[in-house]
Amino acid sequence: MKIQREYWKLEDLEEISIYDISERELFKYVDPVTEVPPIPFKNTLRSLPCDMDVFIPYNDGEDFIIHMLGLTALERGNIRLKDVEGRLLSECSPGFHSIFHKAFYEVYKTEKPKKFRVNYYENDKLARLSNVKILYDMGKIILISELKYTNETKFLEENFKNYDENKANLIEYFSQTGSYYKINDKYSWTQGVYNIINRSREENDEYYNIIFDLAIPEDRPLIDKIQKKLDSGKNSYESVIRIKTHDGILKYLDL
Fold this sequence. Notes:
Elements: E1 2-8, E2 13-19, H1 23-26, H2 42-46, E3 51-58, E4 63-68, H3 71-77, H4 89-92, H5 94-110, E5 114-122, E6 125-137, E7 140-149, H6 151-161, H7 165-175, E8 180-183, E9 186-189, H8 191-197, H9 220-231, E10 240-244, E11 250-254
Parallel strand pairs: 2-5
Antiparallel strand pairs: 1-2, 3-4, 3-7, 5-6, 6-7, 8-9, 10-11
């Protein structure tokens, strides 16, 4: 991951450009330092056309405790809120801590909001940008962001939506195969995958790898190796893994 900063005086904002950040650089699994109370109106907040992240100052602003992350951050990191809430930002997400800690500290001390524009580049091409505002309210740091995608990304999404699902489902049913797509760090699983793992679709399936999650303990090292290869940009990895479905059936899968 490479980071560049530039201040635009006319707009009075700092522009941050982030190059080739991967999911594994976003969040790490660490122990919480405290329990945090639930955020009120959580469902209402998630229905808004922007993301809101909430942080609690820790040790007079030397660090910040994650109270809540918006859907975009959870999807990018392929994580659940319970995996990050109550954790120190510096330990759970060193990358974001290095990017935003100075701004968080200034807003915490001065109680004056700051504006940013964050550009995310993949292979030197702008993939998405986010207009960010950081403010201090109710004793917490609030980060509000509006994410926008490039036309190229929108084109890919529209083509994916037009995919002939009925035809694909029929082919997968008879061939006992399945596939998935990962666009903008969100998983989409074909019906064939659900046939293989013997369950129906669930609300959170787009946020994590539902196949790797079922791998038996003996195959976890292999899963980690495969995941590293996929995270590095490789489109596929030939191997055989063993999973145990929720109803206790052991299956061998060719990847």
